[in-house]
Design a protein that fits this description.
The radius of gyration is 18 Å and the shape is globular. It has one domain. It has 206 residues and is an all-alpha fold.
Length: 206
């Protein structure tokens, strides 16, 4: 069973992202992506793997305390990055296209963040936890594969950012076992990256 799940993990979270990054025709990519998604849905429905039980009692104070420190660090580092390297992009979208900005924040949070967390945190942690000897290794591999999912952007900075983000989200999910909390954190960071002016490299319209 574990060997089969190892092959499954490699196929879904390594093979498909690498293929999607290759310079091949779009239709094979769409077919493979759709096939992988369908497989995950079927497995999730049959085994009830997709969503772990969320903690009924959430320590909101502790969560927002940690989130505040992390978000402040992100604001400082990302603001300095854009200000010194791409000053023309600093808050460009919210100041020039406020309706687009608001629309993207909403669509991204609902249609991008939540599905990513369902797949890479809830489904992944429940189904593949037994393949790893320690929680730290589980978190590291999860973050690595989350970064690999962004390989098609062809940008080393994107891979680095998504690896760091993957570590943060995996730590949060492992600690809280909450889709709600990890989705809030993911959405907040992603919305800020778009707001500050780094959206282009992550595929946001601008």
């Amino acid at each position: 069973m574990l060997q089969r799940r190892s092959y499954e993990l490699i196929s879904l979270f390594v093979g498909i992202p690498i293929f999607l990054a290759l310079p091949v025709y779009l239709i094979p990519k769409l077919l493979l992506g759709a096939g992988g998604l369908l497989y995950v849905i079927v497995v999730a429905v049959r085994t009830k793997d997709p969503i772990e039980k969320t903690q009924m009692v959430i320590n909101w104070r502790a969560f927002f305390g940690i989130l505040g420190v992390r978000f402040a660090l992100l604001v400082v580092v990302s603001s300095a990055f854009v200000y010194f390297l791409y000053p023309d992009l600093l808050f460009k979208v919210p100041t020039t296209k406020p309706l687009l900005w608001l629309g993207i924040l909403l669509v991204y949070s609902i249609l991008s963040v939540y599905p990513q967390e369902l797949l890479y945190r809830s489904f992944f942690f429940k189904r593949y936890r037994g393949l790893f000897e320690s929680k730290n290794m589980l978190i590291f591999i999860n973050a690595t594969l989350f970064s690999l999912a962004h390989l098609f952007f062809g940008n080393l900075l994107v891979l680095l950012l998504t690896f760091i983000g993957g570590l943060v989200f995996a730590f949060t999910y492992n600690r809280t076992n909450s889709m709600l909390l990890v989705s809030i954190e993911h959405a907040l960071y992603g919305c800020w990256i778009f707001t500050i002016g780094m959206g282009d490299m992550l595929g946001f319209p601008s």
